Amino acid sequence: MAKFSTILIHEGKQLDKANNAIFPTITTASSFIQQNVDINGEYSYSRIKNPTRYAYETLLADIEKGIYATATASGVAATLLVLNLLPKNSHIIAMRGVYGGTYRIFEKLIKETSGHKVDYIDLNNLQLVKEHLHNNTRLIWIESPTNPLLELVDIGKICQLAKENNILTCVDNTFATAWNQKPLVLGADIVMLSSSKYIGGHSDLIGGAVITNQSTIADKIDVLKTTIGAIASPFDAYLALRGLKTLDLRMTRQCANALAIAEFLNNHRNIKNIYYPGLPDNPQYSICQTQMKTGGAVVTININGNRENVKNIIDKLQYFVLAESLGGVESMVNHSATMSHSAMTEEERVKMGIYDTTLRLSVGIEDIDDLLNDLEQALNF
Ligand SMILES: Cc1ncc(COP(=O)(O)O)c(C=O)c1O
């Protein structure tokens, strides 16, 4: 069985049958000429299946140990695709602290349009989860690590409980990627992700994906994706596949850099809290050790100071650029309150533990000495 980095280079259905090109070409055609009315070729119309997208999708399925993947126009489109599996008026249990955009879909969209109701709880507290189960509970939405506080969910345990109660599980694997953890192997039914982050890896595309290891779910998702049509374009699929090839190299470097940064910031005089599951004194270190390869490439901090200090730190940082997203080769800093989590009210945010002084660092592939020096000078106040 090939190892992860070899799978990235050689698996998926990447062969270009026409020219034997070493990398799949970008096929922009909307339609494919059929031989006659009785014989359909492999491809008919690109919303249904497109060669560039298919090469990328099959590789995604292989790295997640799934049997099927569909590439969507964005991560939120992938989330909506999964939610369309549910009947009207379903009850969903979600990890507390889910990504702000997911929260917006749950609270501002599907509540109104589909009558779904979502409870946000700590999915590690199985007793609490059991107390929240209803007859119409259809889905457990797991995000691990969460954005931005990097809380982990013991995926195996919650999926086991869900299976016993006939409830679907979906894991948002955006932050970890299949490099760090494989939710389908741990027992989840579905993986969704934003490929705008580590999969693409170069901050140059918006995309998402839904992956499963079960044919009944795959068949339903495939019909839904054709019906809804929020698919990845051939250009984006090409970029994502190109980025995906180096996922192992990038994650190895980025996660090692992140651990060094977390160790440096741990106990720093101007840091009040540090959130990094790869630190031995993090309360979830043992979950991290059992289900993840590393603590990931994001380090979140809550500084000892005020909004003015935050502004100064961001201004002084040279290599951590102020940016909305994460997962690129360049290091980034995000002010969660005004950026990634601005969809929430201040009260909702603070209840979750996201303060005006919370900063999320997405660690890139730069030289670690430069990154540490940059943080040292910026945090010196
Ligand atoms: C954990 C997580 N899930 C989903 C999304 C949504 O992805 P996209 O921005 O590609 O729609 C994001 C985006 O930041 C995210 O961080």
TrEMBL record:
Keyword Iron-sulfur part of the UniProt annotation: no
GO biological process terms, semicolon-separated: cysteine biosynthetic process via cystathionine; methionine biosynthetic process; transsulfuration
Cofactor(s) this protein requires: pyridoxal 5'-phosphate
Highest taxon in the source lineage: Bacteria
A GO term, aspect molecular function: transaminase activity
Keyword Iron: no
Pfam families reported for this sequence: Cys_Met_Meta_PP
EC number: 4.4.1.8
Top EC class of this enzyme: lyase
Keywords carried by this UniProt record: Aminotransferase, Lyase, Pyridoxal phosphate, Transferase
GO cellular component: cytoplasm
Modified residues (N6-(pyridoxal phosphate)lysine): 197
Signal peptide extent: none
Family to which the UniProt record says this protein belongs: Belongs to the trans-sulfuration enzymes family.
Protein name per its UniProtKB record: Cystathionine beta-lyase
Organism whose genome encodes this protein: Arsenophonus nasoniae
Lineage: Bacteria, Pseudomonadati, Pseudomonadota, Gammaproteobacteria, Enterobacterales
UniProt gene name: metC
